[in-house]
Amino acid sequence: MVPKLQVETPYISRALTFEGEKVRLTDLPELCDHSRFCMRAGGIRNLIKKGDPESIKIAVEEATICPSGRLVLWSKEKGTAYEKEFEKSIVVIHDKQKKCEGPLWVRGGIPIESSDGYEYEIRNRVTLCRCGLSENKPFCDGSHWMTSQEKAAFKKKWGIIKNGRSELPLPDGRGFLLQRRDLPS
Ligand code: SF4
Ligand code: FES
């Protein structure tokens, strides 16, 4: 029997934070599948900065359908994450604008394990590469439509150097979050 290997460092210990008055966004850029659901109405960070009820409502909608789970929006008052209740399901993301099929969208907390027994963190939203080109397998990194220049620009912006991993120390709690907090929005 294949031995179980350790679950990877949890999302929450590696995510950057972006603070609004009433909500907090946590963000792990290396998970992005570049499906762009977070860019409506000026983008999720602008909506959080605005902070009025309508903007926060749209920000919640955007975060909860971020397929990859890169983005999670939290209520500061309640200390809980906004999450949709997905049935356990797997669908293929179709990107109309880019005219291509994207990753597998795995929803509702389905366990993911590699063929050599590596168990990944169980999450409500995850996107898995199905084109074979991702540099962050098993997760999608947008390679199904992005050019190498576009990928390089994204990695530079967010400090991702290779294999989808950050060059900053992991997962040294506060130090990591504080260092990353002021990165571009
Ligand atoms: S995966 Fe999430 S963060 Fe990345 S573009 Fe899509 S909605 Fe935005
Ligand atoms: S499906 Fe997105 S990188 Fe493979």
From TrEMBL:
It holds the Pfam family Fer4_19. Residues 113-150 form the Iron-binding zinc finger CDGSH type domain. Keywords: 2Fe-2S, Iron, Iron-sulfur, Metal-binding. PANTHER family: CDGSH IRON SULFUR DOMAIN PROTEIN HOMOLOG (PTHR46491), CDGSH IRON-SULFUR DOMAIN-CONTAINING PROTEIN 3, MITOCHONDRIAL (PTHR46491:SF3). This is Iron-binding zinc finger CDGSH type domain-containing protein.
